[in-house]
Amino acid sequence: MFKILRDLLRYNIEFTIGFILTLAIFLFALAHFWAPMPDTAIYLLPPDMPPSAEYWFGTTSRGQDVLWQMSSAIWNTMLFGLTVTVLSRLLAVAVGMISGYLGGKWDEFLMTINDTMIALPNIPILLLVYFVMRDQMSWPILALTAALLGWNYDARLIRSVTLSLRNREFTRHAVFAGMSVPQILVRQHLPYVMPVIFFTAMNNLIWAIGLEVTLSVLGFSDINRPTIGGMIYWANQHQAIIAGIWWWIAFPIIAVVLLFLGLFLLAISVNEYIDPRSRLSRMGA
Amino acid sequence: MLAAVENKPVSVEAKPVLRVEGLKAYYQMNYFGVRREVRAVDDVSLTINRNEIYGIAGESSSGKSSLIKTIAGAITPPLRVVEGSVKFDFGGKELDVYAQRPAMKAARWKHLSYVMQGSMNVLNPVRKVKHAFRDFAFKHMGLSEGEFRARVESHLQRIGLDPRVLESYPHQLSGGMRQRLTIGLATVCEPEFIIADEPTTALDVLVQQDVLALIKGVQQRMGSSIIFVTHDMTVHAAIADRIGIVYAGRLVEEGSTLDVFQHPQHPYTAHLIASLPRIGDTRKRVALGGKPPNLADPPSGCRFHPRCPLAVDKCKSENPPLLARNSGRVACWRAGEVEAA
Q1: Which of B249, B244, B277, B275 is nearest to B259 (CA)?
Q2: Which of B7, B39, B50, B143 has the most crowded Cβ, counting Cβ within 10 A?
Q3: Does the beta-carbon distance from B124 to A177 stay under 8 Å?
Q4: Helix H or strand E segment including B25
């Protein structure tokens, strides 16, 4: 593992940049555990201070330090995105592979559900869930709802890969040699599907973070829990742009852009390790 | 071209390992109200003895692969067994492929292995070779992790492969090495019966010769039986003990390799043999008119009659049975007259 990491860092410039960016943002987010003040407290500091030696990224109109708010906000946003991604990947892989490999009635049943879900619009459903849940709405429930809405396209993609693998010689041989369906799916097909999962996970993570930002900016989440979208929501509430408090909006946006960039570079280069054939094509073979 | 692979007749004990009786397997389709039935395997009976290599020859779309798939029990709809039975005898225990499915499933790879068509692609391109051995063979051998690894390595060495290939991906190996690996994979459990579908097609003649010698060597060492399919008659000449000629889903002639090559009794076989190039022979080869019949709508009577130079009226109406003649069997109304023609 360590050797792989070392080689990727040495030979792959995309990986190096992505790794440094993501690591820096992760460490920055991790720092909120050592924050000098609780992230939900307001009016602790003088409001509207521009960036200075004392308050590096300035303070908000609500008397919070932008630096520490951002640290918590990125942590919470990343946590939400990763939860959505992991849950929806599990669903997409299970549905896609089962429906592609078993085919027939299973395929029909699962794909009917899948296509129905694709046809449903996401944002109105999330808003409906928010209004129904109201006070019980917490970020894990929101994440679960988003995960249930975010697996359909990728399930179809994974199904198409499995569909082609089903008719390959190695699958027929494995069936003849007596491997069971779960064994074939996990040992023979999953390694093949892995790069697809990685790529869709990337897409999904970005989608989930975007969704969180969208909902929070509109105020449809727990507004007291700092997130990137939540910070922008509060900045809008206090008319930060008109008041000239640019640092309240600019820093969260820069942070989230850097996070996207880092994760994207990581995904495209890690794929090279997972798929031995793309590793080879890079070597010019 | 294959002279280096010596085809010495081995002592074949007359102990049948495989008995196929009256086997009929049809592709049956019923789509949009149209019923179609393709009779790919039509009433085939054959017996294969211990320590014997049986070659199945025939042109493309004659039903060779369907026959071998049906024997292996590796068929999926729309191909179905309509009639007949396939029975293996593994160490005195008789196994009916279609009546005893669970027992048959357990016997696969351990007693019965299969080298499939296009077998160069048997190895999963994204997994190392060692995983293929583990997945296919480990549970059948009942060995510990270390013993299994040692056994696989010594097996690979015996078939001329460096055990280091276990740590590589299939794309890092050459076509010949992959073919060797496939055969290694099929023989690592030392099965009594090996089914091989075109094991040497798509290999150049040098590698082909190599692979044939390998198959023969493995078979002689383990005393197993092999049934293999290829349209390449030179390959049959090189390694088969007996040959069965398939035409349009039927076995039309069967006999020892020498007899079939020297004294073909069926007109189709005679043409097949006569079409082979021989060193020093400059005569022009005569091509047979027509093409293999459509198996969804085969000709009446003997299926070869529209192309047969010897056909008489009886051939058009009555199907000739496969009868013992000389040392082999042949299905032709005019079997005695072929050589004269």
Answers
A1: B244
A2: B39
A3: no
A4: strand B16-31
Q: Evaluate the omega torsion of the peptide bond into residue B78 and state whether it is cis, within 30 degrees of 0.
A: yes
Confirm or reject contact between B135 and chain A (CB < 8 A): yes
**Which residues are paired to A59 by β-bridges?**
A65
Report how far residue B127's alpha carbon sits from residue B171's, in angstroms, rounded to the nearest whole number: 10
Give the side-chain half-sphere CA count within 13 A for A196: 19
Distance CA B142, CA B147 (A): 10
Give the residue among A69, A101, A104 at the shortest CA–CA distance from A233: A69
Which pairs with CB-CB distance under 8 Å and at least 24 residues apart come from A231-236? Answer: A231/A69, A231/A70, A231/A73, A234/A60, A234/A62, A235/A60
CATH 3.40.50.300 residue ranges for chain B: 16-240
Q: Does A187 touch chain B (CB under 8 A)?
A: yes
User: CB of B90 within 8 Å of any CB in chain A?
Assistant: no
Contact A60, A245 (CB under 8 A): yes
**Sign of the dihedral through C-alpha A195, A196, A197, A202:** positive
* Closest residue to A170, CB basis, from B72, B74, B122: B122
Chain B hits for A187, CB-CB cut-off 8 Å, are: 127, 131, 135
Q: How far apart are CA B268 and CA B270, in angstroms?
A: 5
Cβ separation of A277 and B125 shorter than 8 Å?
A: yes
DSSP B217-282: HHHHHHT-EEEEE-S-HHHHHHH-SEEEEEETTEEEEEEEHHHHHHS--SHHHHHHHHTS--TT--
- Report which DSSP code applies to B284: P
Q: How far apart are CA B192 and CA B90, in angstroms?
A: 7
The CATH architecture to which A2-282 belongs is: Orthogonal Bundle (1.10)
Question: Is A192 touching B (CB cutoff 8 A)?
Answer: yes
CA distances A201 to A5, A23, A166, A192, Å, are: 20, 18, 23, 15
Exposure string of B81-114, with b = 16+ CB inside 10 Å and e = fewer, is: beebebbbbbeeeebebeeeeeebeebbbbbbbb
Cα-to-chain-centroid distance, residue A2: 25
Encode burial over A22-56: b for 16+ CB neighbours within 10 A, e otherwise. beebeebbebbeeeeeebeeeeebeebbebeeebe
Instruction: Give the count of beta carbons closer than 10 Å to the beta carbon of residue A167.
Output: 8
Domain ranges within chain A, ordered by starting residue: 2-282
Distance CA B39, CA B28 (A): 9
pLDDT tens digit at each of 341 positions of chain B: 444 555 655 555 567 888 888 888 888 888 887 888 888 888 888 889 888 899 999 888 888 888 988 988 888 888 888 888 888 888 778 888 888 888 888 888 888 888 887 767 788 888 888 988 888 888 888 888 889 999 899 888 888 888 889 999 888 888 888 888 888 888 888 888 899 888 877 777 887 888 888 888 888 888 889 998 988 888 888 888 999 999 888 888 999 988 888 888 888 888 888 888 878 877 777 777 777 788 888 888 888 888 888 888 888 888 888 888 877 888 888 877 766 44
- Beta-carbon count within 10 A of A115 CB: 11
Q: Is A136 exposed, middle or buried (0-12, 13-18, 19+ CB in 10 A)?
A: exposed
